[in-house]
Amino acid sequence: MDQVPRYFETEPSSTIAKRGTREVLMRKASSSHKRFTATFTISMAGEILKPHLLFAKLKNKPAVEGPVVVDVNMTGMWSTDTIISFITDAITSRKETVFSHQPVLLIIDSYGPHLKVAESERLKKMNIHVHIVPPNLTGILQPLDVAVNRSFQQSYGHQYDAYISNALENPSLQTKTGNPKTPTYQMVVDWVCQWAKTKTKEDIAHAFAMCGLVRKEDFDVEKLHPSLRALYNDVVEIDDGNDAYAEEFVEAPIPVYVDLLTAPEYFIPEDVIDGQRNSYWQCLRRAVLGRAPSITSAEFRSITVNHIKTMEVLADITDDAYFVDLESGANCDEEYIAYAITEIHIVTICIQSGEDSS
Predict the structure, then answer these.
(1) What is the pLDDT of residues 206-242, one digit of tens each?
(2) DDE-1 domain location, by residue (predicted)?
């Protein structure tokens, strides 16, 4: 399941006018405040479930016809209640869920209300289990983002252009001043439904295959989309991956700070202390100082410990014995160490336990 926000009118890249006219008006969306959010849900079986349309700045639902679910609110943004209501209507109405009680794995992104949905006991009782795609990974792991949503955006733009062409010839679609009217709610519903009808089972199944979301025996690395397939190489060159990830932003019309878009670096810790890999210190050193640190992990640890000794905020919870253990590598309070490093290097560090990892 994924949402696609849209305005009723699209900002055009071209202008439509009657052939031979001497004056051509610049097209510009005049009612950009009218917007809606289209939500699509697809399944591995190749289904595209009944679309959901959430219209903004309305108190009452517009009278429309078509195989869609319509909701309204003032913001056009989803709430937890709206999402759960839609899931209940769209998913639990499937015969596989109603009669066979088959479990459902619902894959959604990390949009705020989705996080609360993942904790819903109501959905768990209906055998619907929610999995959240980590931030910044929907373009790699979510089938709708990878292979479906873009075609809707293109289809809607083409439908709108066709409507404008028709409005130039049809006075009933024009305002009193001769400008094209804003598309009606029914038109928007029709355009969404027409696009949905073009999606075949093969299209939907292919989207799941591109993200590797298939049965184990059907998994094929060659069917993955390029960004995901690259992660399955025997040898992953992190620098090359980062460069490829940021490449499309280098020549963006609006300057982008590419370093903020660089994917994280992963590595295998190599330092050994008392026969054990010193992974936490090695991880911090590599994260702060880069792929080729100028100092060893032991030197990095010594610098950090010396700084902790000077921190008044930790004075009441540390003593000489604590620092002896810390310097030897026998003691490792992750949170204190991370806090000290954020103070020294002005970085942000997020600690996640193994139990919380996915």
Answers:
(1) 999 999 998 888 888 889 988 888 777 655 555 665 5
(2) 68-192
Number of C-alpha atoms within 13 angstroms, CB side, residue 47? Answer: 12
DSSP class of residue 133 equals P
Cβ 249 vs Cβ 256: under 8 Å: yes
Q: Which domains does the chain have, with CATH numbers?
A: 2-210 (3.30.420), 233-261 (no CATH), 272-356 (no CATH)
Q: Following DSSP, what letter does each residue of 67-110 receive, concatenated? A: S-EEEEESS----HHHHHHHHHHHTTTSHHHHTS---EEEEE--
- Report the candidate in 45, 99, 52 with the shortest Cα–Cα distance to residue 79: 52
129 by DSSP, 3-state: which? Answer: strand
Mean pLDDT score across all residues of the chain? 77
53-63, pLDDT tens digit by residue?
A: 999 888 899 99
Q: Is the pTM of this model over 0.90?
A: no
